[in-house]
Amino acid sequence: MTNTSKYTQLIKAEAKRLGFLSCGVSKAGFLEEEAPRLESWLNKNMNGEMRYMENHFDKRLDPTLLVEGSKSVVSLLLNYFPSQEQTANSYKLSKYAYGTDYHFVIKDKLKMLLAFIQEEIGEVDGRAFVDSAPVLDKAWAAKSGLGWIGKHSNLLTQRVGSFYFIAELIIDLELEYDTPVTDHCGTCTACIDACPTEAITEPYVVDGSKCISYFTIELKDNLPSDMKGKFDDWMFGCDVCQDVCPWNRFSKPHNEPLFNPHPELLSMTKKDWEDITEETFKKVFKKSAVKRTKYAGLLRNVQFLKD
């Protein structure tokens, strides 16, 4: 067995031990296929007010500009599918936001994985990324054979659907590289048909500026009046395109205690959300990704749904 093969197996076994769903590896380099797609998407202003998407164009497409001397992109998936969901009579939160903010949970695991690599293999330099830097994580995960990018632009796998986070370690160690899997969306258009705001403008293209997640999390201005009645009770994020996807029949509940919701969250009704105080907000979302929208932002979203 070659060293590259041995190191790759070591890393994948440790990733599994740390609780990651799966781990794939691809060669660090320029993402040729993604470049024209990203450029076209930005030129059509599909990023809306997410101006940060326009920054670091070159770095988004080439990890060797992010991590000097990098040779491999190690992509990892972490399941967040919950065992229980919110009560039916409630304004809805995207399932990924039920528990502790995933940035903290995954960053810790990635640091442990990098420390393990350095301990077991030697002097390896690298950086951990959890959707907080210009890295096209879905493209790298697909390149690493972890799934294919579906018509709703999320990564999909036949085994477990799409309810998982994607993260990367970009390291200066040569490894054994995986190959992409085939697309299994077929003729299905469930996600396109179900999107309440018609944000999936064509298969595999999502206009970010029309997405409910964009409106309820990223948009800081007033919500547009022409979207009234189209949010399907989503107050933070949206899971519609994932919920209707046939592959998500195979989603299994996660086993990460930090992703479990605050005890009060699942039973809160529409009335509870309408009357939520800042104190309750801080208690329920103490370490949650919902803090991104702040108390005022969540109230704005709830008001928009209520009126």
Which structural traits does this protein have?
307 residues; alpha+beta; two-stranded parallel sheet; 10 strands
Provide a descriptive summary of the structure in words.
There is one protein chain. The chain has 307 residues and is α+β, with helices and mostly antiparallel strands. The chain has one domain. It is 32% helix and 13% strand. It is built from eleven helices and ten strands. It has a four-stranded antiparallel beta sheet, with helices on both faces. Strands 3-10 form a two-stranded parallel ribbon. A two-stranded antiparallel ribbon has the order 5-6. Its EC number is 1.17.99.6. GO terms for molecular function: epoxyqueuosine reductase activity. Residues 173-205 form the 4Fe-4S ferredoxin-type domain. TRNA binds at residue 220.
